[in-house]
């Protein structure tokens, strides 16, 4: 991944399965990935064998293979935590397909991911978590807590190893909000994204701010 050419219409692999999702421009969904009740905003992608449920994903996010975002929990407080209690129609004709209250609780524990976030191979993001803009979640991380913007977390459970940038620089990046630039402005700035050190990049484009 990625496709040879991305565009205004999302690129969704034929083997992917999507239910009640909204995909932005220049987005891509890889093979065998399953998304439900998920928003994937402009320029973001999730590659093969991923899964996301009840999740809002910002712009320019890079989500590696085999990532699980907001996997389901079982009702441990019940006499049985098994599937039949909340998906009874699979077992008895005439039962409702899904138990409304159970899935309402799942939706209430949505995951929110900011812009320009990188989630590594095989990470698991547990229900109700928020990942701030610019953060990195390392490969194989089990994320049980929220992640601050521009912070790198790794491990099981996920722990902070360092910030990508000092807090003052991170604040300036969030104020600049380059992820909201239009497509043509991103193209004009491409050489600077590639070549300029972060302070020089900020100084140049802060000076252009209206």
UniProtKB/TrEMBL annotation:
InterPro entries: Hexapep, Phosphonate_tfrase_rpt, Trans_hexapeptide_repeat, Trimer_LpxA-like_sf. It holds the Pfam family Hexapep. Coiled coil: none annotated. CDD domains: LbH_XAT (cd03349). Belongs to the transferase hexapeptide repeat family. PANTHER family: ACETYLTRANSFERASE, ACETYLTRANSFERASE RV3034C-RELATED. This is Virginiamycin A acetyltransferase. The gene is vat.
